[in-house]
Write a structure and sequence with these properties.
Elements: H1 3-37, H2 43-55, H3 61-68, H4 72-84, E1 88-93, E2 96-101, H5 105-134, H6 138-167, E3 169-171, E4 174-176
Antiparallel strand pairs: 1-2, 3-4
Length: about 180
């Protein structure tokens, strides 16, 4: 094989790797955007956060806006929301703010069972219990009791998840069961 042919193959390999890296990067940013929607954020918030995670260095609003193809206004609104929730921090250098992500996926994920239990399951149980107490109709009462049984089972599962989370400790990148090492 000639030197020119080898150089062409190397360039194609490099271009292919660059294309795959760009695809993976786009996928990651979009996936984080979708993930954030589950937690009540805007998809733009998730995309901004995902890009900051990938960049691995502080970035300006202009850099984020250009990279994501979004208006500075949209990026600014997202950064304010993310900063308010301690997912993004910034340093000011002169008149320019440099933003960086605070990795918090696990924290957000682990908060979900607590929120579901506190804001959805327990209030529903209370309502169903009150409805059972007021019901004179045996068919309706049986239906409500079945719903309450399912809610109690869900409560049990969520409490189990919460208990497991409180017992698990992430040390040096690996999960350990039990108490945290000192």
């Amino acid at each position: 094989m000639t030197v020119v042919a080898r150089m062409t193959l190397i360039r194609w390999d490099a271009d292919d790797k660059k294309d795959r890296d760009q695809e993976d990067r786009r996928f990651f940013v979009e996936a984080v955007g979708s993930f954030f929607k589950r937690y009540g954020y805007d998809e733009v918030d998730g995309r901004v956060y995902g890009l900051l995670l990938l960049m691995g260095r502080p970035a300006t609003m202009a850099e984020l806006s250009k990279e994501l193809g979004l208006s500075r206004s949209a990026v600014s609104i997202s950064l304010k929301r993310l900063s308010r929730d301690y997912l993004v921090k910034y340093q000011k250098r002169g008149r320019v703010k440099y933003f960086s992500a605070v990795p918090a996926f696990l924290k957000k994920f682990l908060q979900q069972p607590k929120d579901i239990l506190e804001h959805e399951v327990i209030p529903l149980e209370n309502v169903v219990e009150r409805m059972i107490a007021r019901s004179d109709d045996p068919v309706r009462r049986a239906s409500l009791e079945k719903a309450l049984k399912n809610l109690k089972a869900l409560e049990c599962v969520l409490r189990g998840i919460i208990r497991l989370e409180s017992e698990a400790r992430c040390l040096n990148g690996s999960w350990k069961q039990g108490t945290q090492a000192h």
